[in-house]
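Predict structure. Chain length: 121.
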Amino acid sequence: MSNTIETLLLRNLRDVFGEADSERRRSAIEALYCADCVVNLPPGQYHGHDALQRIAGKLRASHPDYVYTPHSAPQVVQDGGRIDWGSGPEGEPPRYTGIDIIIARDEKISALYVFLDSEPV
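Prediction complete.
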């Protein structure tokens, strides 16, 4: 399952939180997340695909020119994984950084925990 978790972590950055197109983001959410997923972000806790679609779209709209860049290879332990990342305009140093930690079930993300090292600017 380690390849699956690595892929989930990388695709989540790019295809969910980094995707501006609402339809492509929704398709990625359905492919990557369990229907009963729980997403824990600094602004709050969100349950299910609809809530994730709303908050990911809101976050994307707040920084439309930012990209998420992994700062390390994903790490996997059993059914969990983590990845360090930065976000900012492409080609520039990150404006903020964080870490995503996921728990996988049935080859999808059942829980996501996002920790920020600094506040988005």
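Summary: The chain has one domain: 2-116.
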